[in-house]
Design brief:
This protein has 101 residues and is mainly α. The protein has four helices and no strands. The mean pLDDT is 85.
């Protein structure tokens, strides 16, 4: 399920719509940090995406062993980061201008 862009995301995500490639060239690596506030915000956004069906359990592939069978009603465990990145972060950051989270 694709990420749905909401009208208020410009204010919720600073830098929304800017050129991600230009930002990566302009922002020095020592400025690429995550604060506790950033982490808690991400956790809330992930939980909202799970509740809205944007991040869903993925059946375990019997051949590769890959998947993510998390319980969407469990607010403590899951989804795994592979699922979060593919289902939420990549589509969102692409829509926002190809910048990193």
């Amino acid at each position: 399920m694709p990420v749905t862009v909401h009208d208020d995301w410009h204010s919720r995500y600073p830098g929304w719509g800017l050129d991600g490639q230009a930002l990566h060239a302009a922002v020095a690596p020592e400025r690429w940090c995550v604060t506790r506030k950033d982490f808690l915000f991400l956790r809330k956004e992930i939980w909202q995406a799970v509740c809205k069906g944007g991040i869903r359990p993925i059946a375990i592939d019997p051949t590769t062993g890959l998947g993510d069978e998390f319980d969407p009603t469990d607010g403590f465990i899951g989804p795994n980061m592979y699922n979060v990145v593919e289902s939420f972060i990549k589509p969102l950051t692409l829509e926002a201008g190809k910048m990193s989270w």
